Amino acid sequence: MSTSVPIIDTAGQEVGVADFDAAWLEREKGEQAVHDTVVAFLAGLRSGSACTKNRAKVHGTGAKPWRQKGTGRARAGSVKSPIWRGGGVVFGPAPRSYAKRVNRKVQMLALRRAFTERVDAGDVIVVDELSVAEPKTRCFVELLAAVGAGEDALVVVDDVAGDVQLASRNLPGVEMMKATSVNPYWMLLFSKIVVTRAALDRLGSRLSGEKVK
Q: By three-state DSSP, how is residue 207 classified?
């Protein structure tokens, strides 16, 4: 069973119909795949650069602060001891990678499921093409309003055009992305998804499991 969505132009007028092939959609499974893929994506964004110095890395002398016996004070072997002020940290954080591995089939299943949910919710808008008269933010805001996307939208294109990219980059709620780079996280993040006709073909090839260059 295929699903159809109208294709509109930059003025908001219907100029055709886009058919989503059944191979692009997944309604029976994939919820866990979406969760795992989004968690892995966000984990990969973490820098993992937190670092503390243990007693081996703290700068200071290795000499014993005072003799072992006869002073009346507790025994001390190093000024870099963790119990001393300025000493090393015990079990502190060290640089690490938070990356998680998700295999390709699970990623594709998650992308199909996320895309299907947005299609079923009526959040996918297919436009014939994207063009602006001038590379100005105002022009792109007017374009998004005309197609019914608002200012919280993921714009999926086949290739990033210069004027359109310049016009959209100052909008904090808008992200422009190639169809080859979209993942479930971005698919679910925005209120609306605007896809050009050319990008839809490229995205459909990914959803159906074909290798896309």
A: helix
Domain containing residue 140: CATH number = 3.40.1370.10
Domain that holds residue 63: 52-92
pTM of this structure? 0.82
Whether 88 and 55 have beta carbons less than 8 Å apart is answered as yes
Residues 77 and 138 both lie in one domain: no
Per-residue pLDDT tens, the chain, 213 aa: give them: 458 888 999 888 888 898 888 889 999 999 999 999 999 999 999 999 999 999 999 999 989 999 999 999 999 999 999 999 999 999 999 999 999 999 999 999 999 999 999 999 999 999 998 888 889 999 999 999 999 998 899 999 988 778 888 999 999 999 999 999 999 999 999 999 999 999 999 999 999 876 655
Contacts of 190 (CB under 8 A, 6+ apart): 152, 153, 154, 173, 175
